[in-house]
Structures are given as structure tokens and as C-alpha cells.
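Hey, quick one: can you model this chain's 3D structure?
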Amino acid sequence: MDLELRHLRTLCAIADAGSVGRAAAELGTSQQAVSTQLHRIELHFGEPLFERNTAGVRPTRYGAEVLARARDVLDRAQAIGRRPVEGAAPRPVLRLAATNSPILSGMAARVRTGSPDLLLTVSSVYRSSQIVELLEAGELDAAIGVDYPGLELVHADAVGHRGIVTEPSFLALPAGHRLRHRTEVALADLAGDSWFITPDDGAGWPGVLYAACAAAGFTPATVHEFLGDRLQLQNMIADGLGVSLVQATTRPIPGVIIRPLAGTPLWCRYLLAWHKRSVGDEVAAMLFGAARASYRELIARAPHFQAWAARTCHGTLR
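Sure thing. Here's the predicted structure for all 318 residues.
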């Protein structure tokens, strides 16, 4: 079939409603019609876009990527032919940046849906120290950055920040790894492994990792410095080329398993930072709410994180 805008609207309605039945009600059609259309759309893409469960549906990893692009296409389509009203104020622009954060996609989608009059531009900035510099210079309005306990981000009074979540760092292993049967993996047991380690993030990484390894009695013997997309990293881990610390909500691909570290020696905080002059309290609160909702959705798709939280009596958000 030829993909049309109505198909993209159906996908977004299903994702926002969390079930085919509720999406059908919002679209004013039957559940059977939406189910049939979803089946045809998934055939077009060649794989499932949603996972079915007793509570409804949720996007697959690939489905989340398709949805992010679908929302962008719909936003652009809606803007076509829209003539500015003479004398009307231009749409306010929010310049948002983010480090390597899984929160960004869901957050941006919620901002665009909840604040359609706000023109959102998104850019990638890896180093949190550079994010601070851009905010202080007024070249960004808001951003998602990271820091670590004891190494909290420092910035000028012109910038505000608020912690979104502090999460443990988990470990990605090849599915055939010798420690695959462990519920938790001790850092010391990885002394002989090859490691994928991302470069300096301007907030304390990878120093915090090396400090934790030193406390466990070793220095990583073989290090592959890696700064690429998360899927490429997982493919190399699946091929047995090394192990890596990953975000706790990471969804493993076939050939990769995710395990918590025994004793939880490493934590990372995601935070929302903004320039106080360009972002008011109301917009900052809206951005924070969108970021937290995005993270809750990530948790819902990470059973290994849920199991860790249940065992350790940690709440899902800190």
C-alpha cells in the first residue's frame, strides 16, 4: 500500500491512547477498522510497530522510531499552506538540545503534541559542559544534560536546572557471556573483559567508571572508545567484541543481555536545564513533565529495570 498521512495519524492515535480500542473511539471509527489498518501498516513496514499486552499496546523499539518520524511529518504537513495572520505574533521558538539521552524522543513528541503553537527545534550536544556554555551564552533555551552524584553540574545564575531522574548504570553483555546466568554482575568479575567506553562527556565520565573499576581492584585491560548510535554499540556487543555500561532502560537486541551491577556502584542523573530569561516557569514545568512522562514510558519497556527496582525496593523515579 502507499503510506498516507491518515495512516500516520492512526499510528499516533494508537500510541497516545495506549490501546487500539481507545484510539478507535478517539478517531470515531470501529476497533476492527483500526486493527485492520494497523495490520496493513505493519505489513508495509515489514515488522510489528506495537507490542500487545493485557493493558493494551506499546510501541516496539522500531515503532518508537517510526512514531517520532510520523509526528514530525504530521507537524510539517499541518504547516503547509498555513498563512500567517497579518499582524499576528510569530510562533515562539524553543531551542532544545540533549546529550545521549533516551528521554529526548518521547519528550519532544509530547511537547509538540501538547504545545502545538510552540516551534520546537532539536539539536544534539554530547558534552554537558558544552550544553552549559550554550545555555549561559543564550544560544540554547533548554537542554537535557547529565551529571553524577558528587559531581553535580555547575552553571551561572542565569541558568536553572531540575533533576529528571537518577538511575543506576547497567551492563550490556553478549548473550553467550560466561556471566549470563547471574542476576547481578560484580564489576570485579569483568576485569579481563574488553570494554566499550564513550569519551569525556564534560560531566565526569569516564572518570567515574575508572574510579569504580579501581575500587573493584582493576583497570580495564582493553578499551574501545566508542561514540556512535546505541544500535551499532549493541550489534558489536552481540558479536562478542566487548561489554559496556548502558542506560538502565536500554532495550536489548537479540544477542545482548542487560544486567544490573552488584552493589550499584555507578549512578547517572538526567537533568533539565534552561535559560531563565528565555524559558518561563510555566514552560519549564511543561518540559519537565514531558521528560518525566517519557522516562516512565521507557521504564514500562524495560523489564530488567523493573525487576531490579522490585528486588532493591527502589522506586521507578528518583
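One thing worth noting: The chain has three domains: 5-79, 93-156+268-293, 167-267.
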